[in-house]
Amino acid sequence: MKRKAPSGPGLGSGRRGLLLSATAAAVVAASGDAAFVLPQSLSDGGGIRRRWTGSTSALTSPPTSLGPGRRRRRRRGRDLFETSSAVEGGVGERVGSAPASSPSEHSSDLSSLRRLLSEASALHERNLASTPPLEQIRSRLSDLEEERSDPSFWEAPNAVRNVVVTREVAKYTKLRDGMEAWASLSEDAEGALEMLEEMLVDGDGSDVGDDEMIALAAEECRSSAQTLLELSQRYELETLLSGPYDASPCRLILTAGAGGTEACDWVSILYRMYSRYASSKGMTVTTLDESPGDVVGYKRVELLVEGEDPYGWLRGERGAHRLVRLSPFNANNKRQTTFAGVDVVPVLEDEVVSDVDIPDGELEVTTMRSGGKGGQNVNKVETGVRMKHLPSGISVRCTQERSQLMNKKLALRRLKAQLLAIAQEAKLKDINAIRGDMVEAGWGAQIRNYVLQPYKMIKDVRSGWETSDTEGVLDGGPALEHCVGAWLRWTREREEEEGEIQVME
Questions:
Q1: How far is CA 29 from CA 74, 80, 97, in A?
Q2: 175: left (phi over 0), alpha (psi -120 to 50) or beta
Q3: Would the pTM of this model clear 0.90, i.e. be above it?
Q4: How large a percentage of the chain has pLDDT more than 70?
């Protein structure tokens, strides 16, 4: 009776599997202190991929001297090992080895690194030119800390000065730390590039060790230069936030426009986008007021955004936002266009708005029930106030307080702050020059288009910035910050052009 040869995973069948296993053991024994990874087809019956590192004497002890017959069998075994590994789909490879890069590849990498470092260094130098010297910043910080160390500084009469000094200390500390980080990154990138150039000139890069050192130096240079470029770009945007109210908190008001239920859902999408964007920049978002839609979303949402320069980052979002997509609320799955209005208003202190005088004849005040939580006082008594500025048509609604008198004072202060912001943006000397500057969420008034069907594109009508990364923008990620940055740069260029025209006139 003929006995059937045993078979199992990785062994093949019969004599062939035994030969492959013996060959693999011979190759490992011959490798000395090298590290080998055996393919699964040459491992034991369990199919486990084995790896031997260091000395292999524990596995098999090769003879001290090999005769011609053993050397021939070793070469034959190595050839069989390589051939069978390629056939089975796993090639025995030396751990840590890499193919040597060609000189042309090194040259192209070096050129790209030089361009990246040159771009980062140029932007870094422009930022340094518009920034006070580091020694001056340190001296200013020392003076402020000395002022804060005085015990009388923290007394009640100095409350206003406390806020100013604390804000300046935070500002200059951040600027000092940023400038020190820029200098360190620039030095690291230049040093890595210089080392890389020396290695490419001294050696041909044919040795594996040389390739590893070249790769490490290139990665160090690329990482430092890229970080320097990103930090410089972010600081460049921060220097554009130089308006008188840019550091103030702001109210973000989202209103559904043309589109019905689709417009209410569009407001909820914008609500999520701005909340995530503000959170990513370290700001806090508080919902002041909301009016739910009949089916989904919101008819109106009012948010309070606080943090570092919230009005400066968000003031460019004021206007109508247009959405084009296949509506999930349409039974025929048709493409629909809808609008939502976004208004951004700074929250100013009483000292700033106290100088604004609005005659009573230009105000229209109506009252309403606030509704919501608060018991009978807000559900049966008309504590809510809507105040409208007749010359401009701007209206403010306030239902936060439980008293109608308090809501009326708060609404008047918000209306003054909104008129001041509009006058400052339009460079008007008097708020009486504001006429009909309301956000109209309808056709022809959009500032940005969000097209999701039949193609994906978001385009800012004012700056011309556009992208196909619609999800990145609607998620409030870096893509939205790029859009905001493009608008800030466009605003600066327009102001410079207007300044040149006035000088010529």
A1: 10, 15, 20
A2: alpha
A3: no
A4: 70
